[in-house]
Amino acid sequence: MNPEILKVIREKGVLLEKEVIDILESFGDSSVASNFLEKLVQLSGKKIITKSLLKDNMLGVQKFVEGLSIDKKGEIERIFVKFGFTIEIYKEKASAESNQKREVSEKSRITYKIFCPDTKTDKKLEVQDFSKHFRARYQQLQKILLQRPNLTSLIAINKISSERKTLSIIGILSEKRITKNGNLILTLEDLTGKINVLVKPDRKEVFESADEMQLDDVVAVKASGNKDILFAHEIYFPDAFIHEKKKFEEEACIAFISDIHAGSERHLERSMNNFLEWMNSKDETAKKIKFLFIIGDNVDGVGIFPGQEYLLKMKSMEEQYKLLASYLKKLPEDVTIFMCPGQHDAVRVAEPQPIIGKKYALALYDIENLILVTNPSLVKLIEKEKEFNVLMYHGASIHNLISEIPELRNMKAHKCPAKAVRHMLKRRHLAPTHSSVIYIPNAEKDPMVISEVPDVLCTGEVHRNDIDTYNGVLIVTSSCWQAQTPYEEKVGNMTEPGKVTVLNLKTRELRIFDFVDDEEMGKWTK
Protein backbone atom coordinates (compact mmCIF):
# COMPACT_ATOMS: atom_id res chain seq x y z
CA MET A 1 0.00 0.00 0.00
CA ASN A 2 1.06 3.59 -0.63
CA PRO A 3 3.17 4.91 2.32
CA GLU A 4 1.17 8.16 2.63
CA ILE A 5 -2.12 6.28 2.95
CA LEU A 6 -0.56 3.92 5.49
CA LYS A 7 0.59 6.94 7.47
CA VAL A 8 -2.97 8.31 7.66
CA ILE A 9 -4.31 4.87 8.67
CA ARG A 10 -1.80 4.65 11.51
CA GLU A 11 -2.36 8.24 12.65
CA LYS A 12 -6.14 7.85 12.69
CA GLY A 13 -6.04 4.31 14.09
CA VAL A 14 -8.56 3.00 11.55
CA LEU A 15 -9.20 -0.36 9.90
CA LEU A 16 -10.11 -0.50 6.19
CA GLU A 17 -12.12 -3.11 4.33
CA LYS A 18 -10.17 -4.49 1.35
CA GLU A 19 -12.53 -2.87 -1.21
CA VAL A 20 -11.97 0.55 0.39
CA ILE A 21 -8.20 -0.01 0.12
CA ASP A 22 -8.63 -0.93 -3.55
CA ILE A 23 -10.55 2.29 -4.16
CA LEU A 24 -7.91 4.44 -2.47
CA GLU A 25 -5.09 2.78 -4.42
CA SER A 26 -7.02 3.36 -7.66
CA PHE A 27 -6.90 7.12 -7.07
CA GLY A 28 -3.35 7.24 -8.43
CA ASP A 29 -2.60 10.46 -6.52
CA SER A 30 -1.57 9.53 -2.97
CA SER A 31 -2.25 13.00 -1.58
CA VAL A 32 -5.83 12.96 -2.89
CA ALA A 33 -6.32 9.45 -1.48
CA SER A 34 -4.96 10.51 1.91
CA ASN A 35 -7.14 13.63 2.03
CA PHE A 36 -10.17 11.55 1.04
CA LEU A 37 -9.51 9.04 3.83
CA GLU A 38 -9.16 11.82 6.38
CA LYS A 39 -12.44 13.34 5.17
CA LEU A 40 -14.20 9.97 5.38
CA VAL A 41 -13.01 9.36 8.95
CA GLN A 42 -14.18 12.86 9.85
CA LEU A 43 -17.58 12.38 8.19
CA SER A 44 -18.34 8.97 9.66
CA GLY A 45 -16.73 9.24 13.07
CA LYS A 46 -15.97 5.51 12.75
CA LYS A 47 -12.74 3.57 13.17
CA ILE A 48 -13.71 0.74 10.81
CA ILE A 49 -14.24 1.95 7.25
CA THR A 50 -16.29 -0.43 5.08
CA LYS A 51 -17.92 -0.24 1.66
CA SER A 52 -21.36 0.09 3.25
CA LEU A 53 -20.10 2.99 5.40
CA LEU A 54 -18.80 4.62 2.25
CA LYS A 55 -22.25 4.26 0.66
CA ASP A 56 -23.89 5.85 3.70
CA ASN A 57 -21.67 8.92 3.36
CA MET A 58 -21.96 9.47 -0.40
CA LEU A 59 -23.23 13.03 0.04
CA GLY A 60 -20.00 13.96 1.82
CA VAL A 61 -18.03 12.04 -0.81
CA GLN A 62 -19.74 14.06 -3.53
CA LYS A 63 -18.82 17.34 -1.82
CA PHE A 64 -15.21 16.18 -1.56
CA VAL A 65 -15.10 15.32 -5.28
CA GLU A 66 -16.65 18.66 -6.26
CA GLY A 67 -13.76 20.42 -4.50
CA LEU A 68 -11.13 18.74 -6.67
CA SER A 69 -9.58 20.16 -9.82
CA ILE A 70 -11.43 19.44 -13.07
CA ASP A 71 -8.99 16.75 -14.23
CA LYS A 72 -8.97 14.95 -10.87
CA LYS A 73 -12.74 15.25 -10.49
CA GLY A 74 -13.47 13.26 -13.64
CA GLU A 75 -10.92 10.58 -12.77
CA ILE A 76 -12.23 10.06 -9.22
CA GLU A 77 -15.86 9.99 -10.40
CA ARG A 78 -15.02 7.19 -12.86
CA ILE A 79 -13.33 5.21 -10.09
CA PHE A 80 -16.43 5.32 -7.89
CA VAL A 81 -18.67 4.19 -10.75
CA LYS A 82 -16.19 1.42 -11.62
CA PHE A 83 -16.35 0.07 -8.06
CA GLY A 84 -20.11 -0.29 -8.30
CA PHE A 85 -21.44 2.72 -6.40
CA THR A 86 -24.83 4.20 -7.22
CA ILE A 87 -23.49 7.73 -7.21
CA GLU A 88 -24.67 11.03 -8.55
CA ILE A 89 -22.19 12.75 -10.80
CA TYR A 90 -22.83 16.45 -11.26
CA LYS A 91 -20.92 18.62 -13.68
CA GLU A 92 -21.40 21.93 -15.37
CA LYS A 93 -21.14 22.00 -19.13
CA ALA A 94 -17.76 23.23 -20.34
CA SER A 95 -17.85 26.58 -22.13
CA ALA A 96 -14.20 27.30 -22.93
CA GLU A 97 -13.16 28.12 -26.47
CA SER A 98 -10.79 25.91 -28.45
CA ASN A 99 -8.66 27.07 -31.37
CA GLN A 100 -9.01 23.71 -33.08
CA LYS A 101 -12.73 23.32 -32.39
CA ARG A 102 -15.78 25.43 -33.05
CA GLU A 103 -16.74 28.28 -30.74
CA VAL A 104 -18.89 27.41 -27.72
CA SER A 105 -21.67 29.62 -26.40
CA GLU A 106 -20.73 31.04 -22.98
CA LYS A 107 -24.43 31.21 -22.14
CA SER A 108 -24.81 27.41 -22.12
CA ARG A 109 -26.06 26.45 -18.68
CA ILE A 110 -27.16 22.87 -19.22
CA THR A 111 -25.69 20.57 -16.61
CA TYR A 112 -26.16 16.88 -15.94
CA LYS A 113 -26.41 14.20 -13.29
CA ILE A 114 -25.74 10.52 -13.84
CA PHE A 115 -27.33 7.68 -11.89
CA CYS A 116 -25.61 4.31 -12.18
CA PRO A 117 -26.75 1.06 -10.54
CA ASP A 118 -24.59 -0.93 -8.16
CA THR A 119 -22.60 -3.35 -10.33
CA LYS A 120 -20.22 -4.76 -7.72
CA THR A 121 -20.44 -8.48 -6.94
CA ASP A 122 -18.74 -9.44 -3.69
CA LYS A 123 -20.06 -12.94 -2.99
CA LYS A 124 -20.74 -16.32 -4.53
CA LEU A 125 -24.28 -16.40 -5.87
CA GLU A 126 -26.78 -18.84 -4.39
CA VAL A 127 -30.39 -19.75 -5.21
CA GLN A 128 -31.69 -17.57 -2.38
CA ASP A 129 -30.07 -14.51 -3.99
CA PHE A 130 -32.37 -14.93 -6.99
CA SER A 131 -35.48 -15.38 -4.84
CA LYS A 132 -34.59 -12.21 -2.90
CA HIS A 133 -34.03 -10.41 -6.21
CA PHE A 134 -37.53 -11.30 -7.42
CA ARG A 135 -39.02 -10.32 -4.06
CA ALA A 136 -37.36 -6.91 -4.42
CA ARG A 137 -38.61 -6.59 -8.02
CA TYR A 138 -42.14 -7.52 -7.01
CA GLN A 139 -42.18 -4.89 -4.26
CA GLN A 140 -40.84 -2.18 -6.61
CA LEU A 141 -43.46 -2.85 -9.27
CA GLN A 142 -46.17 -3.36 -6.67
CA LYS A 143 -45.60 0.22 -5.48
CA ILE A 144 -46.09 1.46 -9.05
CA LEU A 145 -49.30 -0.54 -9.52
CA LEU A 146 -50.68 0.63 -6.18
CA GLN A 147 -50.85 4.14 -7.64
CA ARG A 148 -53.69 3.05 -9.93
CA PRO A 149 -56.97 4.45 -8.56
CA ASN A 150 -59.15 1.78 -10.21
CA LEU A 151 -57.79 -1.17 -8.20
CA THR A 152 -60.72 -1.67 -5.84
CA SER A 153 -60.90 -4.24 -3.04
CA LEU A 154 -57.17 -5.00 -3.34
CA ILE A 155 -56.28 -8.10 -1.34
CA ALA A 156 -53.32 -10.43 -0.68
CA ILE A 157 -53.72 -13.84 -2.29
CA ASN A 158 -53.72 -15.76 1.00
CA LYS A 159 -56.60 -13.60 2.23
CA ILE A 160 -58.98 -14.63 -0.58
CA SER A 161 -61.85 -16.54 0.99
CA SER A 162 -63.98 -19.44 -0.23
CA GLU A 163 -66.88 -17.00 -0.77
CA ARG A 164 -67.22 -15.62 -4.31
CA LYS A 165 -66.30 -11.90 -4.46
CA THR A 166 -65.09 -9.20 -6.82
CA LEU A 167 -61.55 -8.14 -5.93
CA SER A 168 -58.12 -7.05 -7.17
CA ILE A 169 -54.71 -8.68 -6.74
CA ILE A 170 -51.13 -7.86 -7.72
CA GLY A 171 -49.03 -10.84 -8.72
CA ILE A 172 -46.04 -12.07 -10.67
CA LEU A 173 -46.68 -14.56 -13.48
CA SER A 174 -45.13 -17.96 -12.72
CA GLU A 175 -47.01 -20.08 -15.27
CA LYS A 176 -49.27 -19.63 -18.30
CA ARG A 177 -51.15 -22.36 -20.14
CA ILE A 178 -54.10 -22.75 -22.50
CA THR A 179 -56.98 -25.16 -21.92
CA LYS A 180 -58.66 -27.41 -24.49
CA ASN A 181 -61.53 -24.88 -24.59
CA GLY A 182 -59.16 -22.10 -25.61
CA ASN A 183 -59.12 -20.37 -22.22
CA LEU A 184 -55.90 -19.03 -20.75
CA ILE A 185 -54.96 -19.91 -17.18
CA LEU A 186 -52.45 -17.62 -15.48
CA THR A 187 -50.76 -18.65 -12.26
CA LEU A 188 -50.01 -15.51 -10.27
CA GLU A 189 -47.96 -15.28 -7.08
CA ASP A 190 -47.50 -12.59 -4.46
CA LEU A 191 -45.51 -12.68 -1.21
CA THR A 192 -48.28 -14.65 0.50
CA GLY A 193 -49.27 -17.38 -1.96
CA LYS A 194 -50.40 -18.25 -5.50
CA ILE A 195 -53.69 -18.57 -7.37
CA ASN A 196 -54.97 -19.48 -10.85
CA VAL A 197 -56.69 -16.81 -12.93
CA LEU A 198 -58.82 -17.88 -15.90
CA VAL A 199 -59.14 -15.58 -18.93
CA LYS A 200 -61.86 -16.28 -21.53
CA PRO A 201 -61.45 -15.47 -25.25
CA ASP A 202 -64.81 -13.66 -25.35
CA ARG A 203 -63.22 -10.85 -23.29
CA LYS A 204 -61.08 -9.81 -26.26
CA GLU A 205 -58.97 -7.00 -24.74
CA VAL A 206 -58.34 -8.89 -21.51
CA PHE A 207 -57.47 -12.05 -23.43
CA GLU A 208 -54.99 -10.14 -25.64
CA SER A 209 -53.31 -8.67 -22.55
CA ALA A 210 -53.08 -12.12 -20.97
CA ASP A 211 -51.75 -13.64 -24.20
CA GLU A 212 -48.86 -11.19 -24.38
CA MET A 213 -47.90 -11.66 -20.72
CA GLN A 214 -44.45 -13.12 -20.19
CA LEU A 215 -43.16 -15.18 -17.29
CA ASP A 216 -42.14 -12.93 -14.38
CA ASP A 217 -44.37 -10.03 -15.50
CA VAL A 218 -45.85 -8.23 -12.50
CA VAL A 219 -49.45 -7.16 -13.14
CA ALA A 220 -52.62 -6.16 -11.33
CA VAL A 221 -55.82 -8.11 -12.05
CA LYS A 222 -59.43 -7.17 -11.34
CA ALA A 223 -61.40 -10.41 -11.07
CA SER A 224 -64.22 -12.28 -9.43
CA GLY A 225 -64.08 -15.68 -7.79
CA ASN A 226 -62.78 -17.36 -4.67
CA LYS A 227 -59.60 -18.98 -3.38
CA ASP A 228 -59.97 -21.88 -5.82
CA ILE A 229 -59.92 -19.80 -9.03
CA LEU A 230 -60.43 -16.23 -10.23
CA PHE A 231 -62.04 -15.02 -13.47
CA ALA A 232 -60.26 -12.00 -14.94
CA HIS A 233 -62.18 -8.80 -15.81
CA GLU A 234 -59.21 -6.44 -16.32
CA ILE A 235 -55.41 -6.78 -16.48
CA TYR A 236 -53.14 -3.81 -15.74
CA PHE A 237 -49.42 -3.59 -16.49
CA PRO A 238 -47.31 -1.15 -14.41
CA ASP A 239 -47.02 1.11 -17.49
CA ALA A 240 -45.10 4.34 -18.07
CA PHE A 241 -46.60 7.79 -18.66
CA ILE A 242 -45.15 11.23 -19.37
CA HIS A 243 -47.81 13.93 -19.10
CA GLU A 244 -45.66 16.88 -20.20
CA LYS A 245 -43.19 17.05 -23.08
CA LYS A 246 -40.33 19.03 -21.59
CA LYS A 247 -38.61 21.77 -23.57
CA PHE A 248 -35.46 23.70 -22.68
CA GLU A 249 -34.96 27.42 -23.25
CA GLU A 250 -31.56 26.89 -24.85
CA GLU A 251 -31.60 25.46 -28.35
CA ALA A 252 -29.31 22.52 -27.60
CA CYS A 253 -29.40 19.14 -29.30
CA ILE A 254 -28.59 15.60 -28.23
CA ALA A 255 -27.49 12.85 -30.62
CA PHE A 256 -27.74 9.06 -30.38
CA ILE A 257 -25.52 6.38 -31.90
CA SER A 258 -24.58 2.81 -30.96
CA ASP A 259 -22.91 -0.40 -32.10
CA ILE A 260 -19.74 1.09 -33.56
CA HIS A 261 -18.05 -2.35 -33.54
CA ALA A 262 -14.57 -0.88 -33.96
CA GLY A 263 -12.14 -3.59 -35.03
CA SER A 264 -14.61 -5.65 -37.02
CA GLU A 265 -13.67 -6.55 -40.57
CA ARG A 266 -17.02 -5.05 -41.59
CA HIS A 267 -16.71 -1.91 -39.47
CA LEU A 268 -17.59 1.12 -41.63
CA GLU A 269 -14.63 3.41 -40.97
CA ARG A 270 -15.30 5.81 -43.83
CA SER A 271 -18.95 6.19 -42.83
CA MET A 272 -17.90 6.91 -39.24
CA ASN A 273 -15.48 9.57 -40.42
CA ASN A 274 -18.28 11.16 -42.46
CA PHE A 275 -20.19 11.59 -39.18
CA LEU A 276 -17.13 13.00 -37.37
CA GLU A 277 -16.46 15.50 -40.15
CA TRP A 278 -20.08 16.62 -39.99
CA MET A 279 -19.86 17.07 -36.21
CA ASN A 280 -16.95 19.48 -36.75
CA SER A 281 -18.59 21.29 -39.65
CA LYS A 282 -20.57 24.53 -39.77
CA ASP A 283 -23.83 22.68 -40.21
CA GLU A 284 -26.47 24.42 -38.07
CA THR A 285 -27.69 21.20 -36.44
CA ALA A 286 -24.19 19.85 -35.81
CA LYS A 287 -23.18 23.07 -34.05
CA LYS A 288 -26.11 22.73 -31.63
CA ILE A 289 -25.24 19.22 -30.46
CA LYS A 290 -24.14 19.40 -26.83
CA PHE A 291 -24.46 15.75 -25.79
CA LEU A 292 -23.76 12.47 -27.60
CA PHE A 293 -25.12 9.17 -26.27
CA ILE A 294 -23.24 6.04 -27.41
CA ILE A 295 -25.25 3.00 -26.38
CA GLY A 296 -22.95 0.00 -26.28
CA ASP A 297 -21.10 -2.52 -28.47
CA ASN A 298 -18.46 0.13 -28.98
CA VAL A 299 -15.89 -2.43 -30.18
CA ASP A 300 -16.39 -5.81 -31.83
CA GLY A 301 -14.65 -7.67 -29.02
CA VAL A 302 -12.84 -11.01 -29.10
CA GLY A 303 -14.40 -14.46 -28.69
CA ILE A 304 -17.95 -13.12 -28.53
CA PHE A 305 -19.37 -15.80 -30.84
CA PRO A 306 -17.96 -18.90 -32.60
CA GLY A 307 -15.82 -18.08 -35.60
CA GLN A 308 -15.57 -14.36 -34.81
CA GLU A 309 -11.79 -14.43 -35.25
CA TYR A 310 -12.32 -14.77 -39.01
CA LEU A 311 -14.38 -11.56 -39.07
CA LEU A 312 -11.94 -9.36 -37.14
CA LYS A 313 -9.65 -6.77 -38.64
CA MET A 314 -8.08 -6.12 -35.22
CA LYS A 315 -7.43 -9.22 -33.14
CA SER A 316 -6.98 -7.59 -29.71
CA MET A 317 -9.28 -5.52 -27.51
CA GLU A 318 -6.54 -2.94 -26.90
CA GLU A 319 -6.25 -2.27 -30.65
CA GLN A 320 -10.01 -1.99 -30.99
CA TYR A 321 -10.32 0.52 -28.14
CA LYS A 322 -7.43 2.57 -29.54
CA LEU A 323 -9.33 2.87 -32.82
CA LEU A 324 -12.48 3.83 -30.92
CA ALA A 325 -10.55 6.44 -28.93
CA SER A 326 -9.15 7.92 -32.14
CA TYR A 327 -12.72 8.53 -33.30
CA LEU A 328 -13.88 10.08 -30.04
CA LYS A 329 -10.90 12.44 -29.93
CA LYS A 330 -12.08 13.92 -33.23
CA LEU A 331 -15.39 15.02 -31.71
CA PRO A 332 -15.72 18.68 -30.66
CA GLU A 333 -14.40 19.19 -27.14
CA ASP A 334 -17.58 20.94 -26.02
CA VAL A 335 -19.69 17.84 -26.76
CA THR A 336 -20.12 15.68 -23.66
CA ILE A 337 -20.10 11.98 -24.56
CA PHE A 338 -21.91 9.37 -22.48
CA MET A 339 -20.87 5.81 -23.31
CA CYS A 340 -22.24 2.58 -21.85
CA PRO A 341 -21.03 -0.96 -22.66
CA GLY A 342 -22.76 -3.77 -24.53
CA GLN A 343 -22.16 -7.52 -24.84
CA HIS A 344 -19.18 -6.97 -27.19
CA ASP A 345 -17.32 -4.65 -24.81
CA ALA A 346 -14.56 -5.61 -22.37
CA VAL A 347 -16.85 -6.05 -19.38
CA ARG A 348 -18.90 -8.96 -18.07
CA VAL A 349 -22.03 -9.82 -20.05
CA ALA A 350 -24.23 -10.03 -16.93
CA GLU A 351 -26.43 -6.96 -16.40
CA PRO A 352 -26.19 -4.37 -15.02
CA GLN A 353 -22.83 -4.08 -16.75
CA PRO A 354 -20.07 -2.04 -15.09
CA ILE A 355 -18.29 0.79 -16.87
CA ILE A 356 -15.55 -0.13 -19.33
CA GLY A 357 -12.32 -0.48 -17.34
CA LYS A 358 -8.73 0.56 -17.98
CA LYS A 359 -7.32 -2.94 -18.52
CA TYR A 360 -8.18 -3.03 -22.22
CA ALA A 361 -9.55 0.47 -22.80
CA LEU A 362 -6.88 2.70 -21.26
CA ALA A 363 -7.00 4.88 -24.38
CA LEU A 364 -10.53 6.02 -23.48
CA TYR A 365 -9.40 7.48 -20.16
CA ASP A 366 -7.44 10.25 -21.85
CA ILE A 367 -10.60 11.76 -23.39
CA GLU A 368 -11.76 14.54 -21.06
CA ASN A 369 -15.24 14.96 -22.49
CA LEU A 370 -16.01 11.21 -22.36
CA ILE A 371 -18.09 9.95 -19.42
CA LEU A 372 -18.13 6.16 -19.10
CA VAL A 373 -21.32 4.86 -17.53
CA THR A 374 -22.92 1.52 -16.71
CA ASN A 375 -25.49 -0.38 -18.74
CA PRO A 376 -28.19 0.70 -17.96
CA SER A 377 -27.72 4.30 -16.75
CA LEU A 378 -30.00 7.27 -16.23
CA VAL A 379 -28.67 10.67 -17.35
CA LYS A 380 -30.54 13.78 -16.21
CA LEU A 381 -29.93 16.89 -18.30
CA ILE A 382 -30.71 19.97 -16.24
CA GLU A 383 -31.57 23.54 -17.22
CA LYS A 384 -32.55 25.64 -14.20
CA GLU A 385 -35.54 23.83 -12.65
CA LYS A 386 -36.16 21.57 -15.64
CA GLU A 387 -34.90 18.01 -15.95
CA PHE A 388 -34.78 15.99 -19.16
CA ASN A 389 -34.15 12.34 -18.39
CA VAL A 390 -32.44 9.92 -20.79
CA LEU A 391 -32.37 6.22 -19.92
CA MET A 392 -29.58 4.34 -21.72
CA TYR A 393 -29.88 0.57 -22.16
CA HIS A 394 -27.99 -1.39 -24.80
CA GLY A 395 -30.93 -3.72 -25.32
CA ALA A 396 -29.92 -7.39 -24.97
CA SER A 397 -33.48 -8.35 -24.00
CA ILE A 398 -35.01 -7.08 -27.25
CA HIS A 399 -34.49 -10.43 -29.03
CA ASN A 400 -36.37 -12.33 -26.32
CA LEU A 401 -39.28 -9.88 -26.40
CA ILE A 402 -39.58 -10.25 -30.18
CA SER A 403 -39.49 -14.04 -30.09
CA GLU A 404 -41.93 -14.44 -27.18
CA ILE A 405 -44.60 -11.77 -27.72
CA PRO A 406 -46.96 -12.79 -30.57
CA GLU A 407 -47.59 -9.22 -31.76
CA LEU A 408 -43.85 -8.54 -32.16
CA ARG A 409 -43.10 -11.93 -33.67
CA ASN A 410 -45.84 -11.56 -36.28
CA MET A 411 -44.73 -8.08 -37.36
CA LYS A 412 -41.06 -9.22 -37.57
CA ALA A 413 -40.11 -6.51 -35.12
CA HIS A 414 -36.38 -6.76 -35.85
CA LYS A 415 -37.34 -4.36 -38.67
CA CYS A 416 -39.02 -1.99 -36.20
CA PRO A 417 -37.26 -2.62 -32.84
CA ALA A 418 -38.80 0.42 -31.12
CA LYS A 419 -42.04 -1.62 -30.98
CA ALA A 420 -40.22 -4.07 -28.69
CA VAL A 421 -38.90 -1.27 -26.50
CA ARG A 422 -42.49 -0.13 -25.96
CA HIS A 423 -43.02 -3.38 -24.05
CA MET A 424 -40.16 -2.51 -21.68
CA LEU A 425 -41.98 0.70 -20.79
CA LYS A 426 -45.31 -1.11 -20.50
CA ARG A 427 -43.77 -3.55 -18.02
CA ARG A 428 -41.54 -0.90 -16.41
CA HIS A 429 -38.66 -3.34 -16.74
CA LEU A 430 -35.76 -3.57 -19.19
CA ALA A 431 -35.51 -7.37 -19.15
CA PRO A 432 -38.70 -8.79 -17.61
CA THR A 433 -38.24 -12.55 -18.04
CA HIS A 434 -35.69 -14.63 -16.14
CA SER A 435 -33.13 -15.99 -18.66
CA SER A 436 -33.95 -13.35 -21.28
CA VAL A 437 -30.57 -11.85 -20.34
CA ILE A 438 -27.79 -12.89 -17.99
CA TYR A 439 -28.06 -10.76 -14.85
CA ILE A 440 -26.63 -10.30 -11.36
CA PRO A 441 -29.37 -10.65 -8.71
CA ASN A 442 -29.75 -7.82 -6.21
CA ALA A 443 -31.59 -8.49 -2.95
CA GLU A 444 -32.24 -4.82 -2.23
CA LYS A 445 -33.36 -3.37 -5.55
CA ASP A 446 -33.71 -4.75 -9.07
CA PRO A 447 -31.66 -2.23 -11.11
CA MET A 448 -33.46 -3.20 -14.33
CA VAL A 449 -36.81 -1.87 -13.06
CA ILE A 450 -37.67 1.48 -14.69
CA SER A 451 -38.34 3.24 -11.38
CA GLU A 452 -38.42 6.73 -12.86
CA VAL A 453 -40.12 7.21 -16.21
CA PRO A 454 -37.60 8.79 -18.63
CA ASP A 455 -38.27 11.37 -21.30
CA VAL A 456 -36.21 9.25 -23.70
CA LEU A 457 -35.39 5.54 -23.61
CA CYS A 458 -32.52 4.87 -26.03
CA THR A 459 -31.18 1.46 -27.02
CA GLY A 460 -28.90 -0.21 -29.55
CA GLU A 461 -28.34 -3.94 -30.15
CA VAL A 462 -30.58 -4.47 -33.19
CA HIS A 463 -28.42 -2.34 -35.55
CA ARG A 464 -31.43 -0.52 -36.92
CA ASN A 465 -32.58 3.06 -36.52
CA ASP A 466 -36.19 3.33 -35.35
CA ILE A 467 -38.29 5.95 -33.59
CA ASP A 468 -41.52 5.60 -31.65
CA THR A 469 -43.37 7.06 -28.67
CA TYR A 470 -45.17 5.36 -25.81
CA ASN A 471 -47.48 7.41 -23.58
CA GLY A 472 -45.32 10.49 -24.12
CA VAL A 473 -41.95 8.71 -23.79
CA LEU A 474 -39.69 9.02 -26.85
CA ILE A 475 -38.06 5.75 -27.93
CA VAL A 476 -34.85 5.83 -29.97
CA THR A 477 -33.24 2.62 -31.22
CA SER A 478 -29.93 3.44 -32.82
CA SER A 479 -28.23 2.41 -36.01
CA CYS A 480 -24.82 0.70 -36.25
CA TRP A 481 -21.47 1.30 -37.96
CA GLN A 482 -20.95 -2.20 -39.30
CA ALA A 483 -22.16 -3.96 -42.44
CA GLN A 484 -24.31 -7.01 -41.78
CA THR A 485 -22.30 -10.06 -40.72
CA PRO A 486 -23.39 -13.70 -41.11
CA TYR A 487 -23.93 -13.76 -37.33
CA GLU A 488 -26.18 -10.69 -37.50
CA GLU A 489 -28.21 -12.35 -40.22
CA LYS A 490 -28.48 -15.49 -38.06
CA VAL A 491 -29.87 -13.63 -35.01
CA GLY A 492 -32.33 -11.70 -37.18
CA ASN A 493 -30.83 -8.20 -37.15
CA MET A 494 -31.92 -6.32 -40.27
CA THR A 495 -29.03 -3.88 -40.24
CA GLU A 496 -29.33 -0.25 -41.29
CA PRO A 497 -25.89 1.35 -40.75
CA GLY A 498 -24.70 4.92 -40.50
CA LYS A 499 -27.79 6.76 -39.25
CA VAL A 500 -27.74 9.31 -36.42
CA THR A 501 -30.80 10.54 -34.53
CA VAL A 502 -30.70 14.14 -33.27
CA LEU A 503 -33.24 15.67 -30.87
CA ASN A 504 -33.59 19.43 -30.33
CA LEU A 505 -34.29 20.06 -26.63
CA LYS A 506 -35.95 23.40 -27.30
CA THR A 507 -38.24 22.60 -30.22
CA ARG A 508 -38.49 18.80 -29.74
CA GLU A 509 -37.72 18.50 -33.45
CA LEU A 510 -36.34 15.06 -34.28
CA ARG A 511 -34.09 14.53 -37.29
CA ILE A 512 -32.28 11.50 -38.71
CA PHE A 513 -29.03 11.95 -40.65
CA ASP A 514 -27.49 9.32 -42.94
CA PHE A 515 -23.67 9.14 -43.13
CA VAL A 516 -23.21 5.84 -44.96
CA ASP A 517 -20.49 5.79 -47.59
CA ASP A 518 -22.18 4.00 -50.48
CA GLU A 519 -18.92 2.75 -51.99
CA GLU A 520 -17.82 1.33 -48.63
CA MET A 521 -21.15 -0.40 -48.13
CA GLY A 522 -21.14 -1.65 -51.71
CA LYS A 523 -18.37 -4.16 -51.16
CA TRP A 524 -20.47 -5.92 -48.49
CA THR A 525 -23.84 -5.84 -50.26
CA LYS A 526 -22.88 -7.31 -53.63
Describe this structure in words.
Helix 12 (358-361) links the parallel strand 12 (336-340) and strand 13. The chain is globular, with a radius of gyration of 25 Å. A seven-stranded mixed sheet has the order 3-4-14-15-16-18-17, covered by helices on one side. Strands 13-12-11-10-19-20 form a six-stranded mixed sheet. A five-stranded mixed barrel has the order 5-6-7-9-8. It has three domains: 3-83; 127-236, OB fold (Dihydrolipoamide Acetyltransferase, E2P); 270-525, Purple Acid Phosphatase, chain A, domain 2 (4-Layer Sandwich). Helix content is 30%, strand content 22%. The protein has 17 helices and 20 strands. The protein has 526 residues and is α/β, with parallel strands linked by helices.
Compose a concise summary of this entry:
This protein is α/β, with parallel strands linked by helices. The protein is 30% helix and 22% strand.
Low-confidence stretches: 89-107
Question: Radius of gyration in whole Å, from Cα?
Answer: 25 Å
Number of alpha- plus pi-helical segments: 17
Quick one: CATH class of the largest domain? Answer: Alpha Beta
